[in-house]
Recover the amino acids of this structure.
């Protein structure tokens, strides 16, 4: 479990395909991660964080909860299964790219952001970027199946960063990035057209699941009419 308060950034040093039939890998190269159907081994340089890692530790990389499989000095490696690659932006990562990093929440820690599982729900695309005073205003296109879980003034994790939804117009969710967040994360360099990992508020997901329990809606799909109506409640009071 995480809070969406990014601690530092790391630099991707290599991406290696774990697919048996993928042929040559992308390790240390200038090419991208390849087809999104392949698993990946991602190696990251993080001087302020990697020395504290042990094999088996958890870390959020651009909002994705991953397990450290190897660590040497300032370098650590994680592995991604094809399902994770297909649901995230990792398929377009390249050596040299920066990534946001956060270690797991301790039970004694304050929750300065919001509860983030590191289970990315989908990928959004930046549709607008504007400087407003001392902040950066972004509008992100939210996939249709996630829009029911996005509300104005609610929480959302973008590339692992806990943010408040400042405005909502259709499928466009607006967030405002303060200078501190822009300086210690990758978001300050995001431009129109860039893709970002999205994790919606887990509490909203659970509430929606409870409200629609017993309906014909498939789990994880766009919610249909709720079986919990005013008459349903009156019958059980």
């Amino acid at each position: 479990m995480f809070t969406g308060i990014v601690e530092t950034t790391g630099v991707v040093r290599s991406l290696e395909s774990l697919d048996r039939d993928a042929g040559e890998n992308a390790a240390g190269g200038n090419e991208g991660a390849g087809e999104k159907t392949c698993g990946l081994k991602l190696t990251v340089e993080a001087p302020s964080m990697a020395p504290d890692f042990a094999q088996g530790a958890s870390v959020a990389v651009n909002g994705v909860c991953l397990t450290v499989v190897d660590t040497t000095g300032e370098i650590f490696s994680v592995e991604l299964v094809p399902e994770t690659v297909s649901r995230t932006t990792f398929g377009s990562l390249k050596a040299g790219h920066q990534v946001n990093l956060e270690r797991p929440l301790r039970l004694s820690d304050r929750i300065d952001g919001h509860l983030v599982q590191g289970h990315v729900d989908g990928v959004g695309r930046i549709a607008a970027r504007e400087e407003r005073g001392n902040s950066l205003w972004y509008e992100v296109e939210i996939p249709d199946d996630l829009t029911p879980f996005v509300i104005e003034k609610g929480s959302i994790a973008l590339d692992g960063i806990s943010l408040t939804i400042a405005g909502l117009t259709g499928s466009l969710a607006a967030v405002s990035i303060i200078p501190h967040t822009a300086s210690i994360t990758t978001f300050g360099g995001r431009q129109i057209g860039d893709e970002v990992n999205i994790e919606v508020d887990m509490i909203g997901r659970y509430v929606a699941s409870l409200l629609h329990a017993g309906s014909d809606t498939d789990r994880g799909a766009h919610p249909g009419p709720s079986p919990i109506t005013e008459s349903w409640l009156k019958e059980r009071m």
Q: What stands out?
A: Residues 8-102 form a domain with the Elongation Factor Tu (Ef-tu); domain 3 fold (CATH 2.40.30.20). The two ends are 37 Å apart (CA to CA). The helical segments are 82-87, 179-184, 202-211, 230-235. The first helix runs from residue 82 to 87.
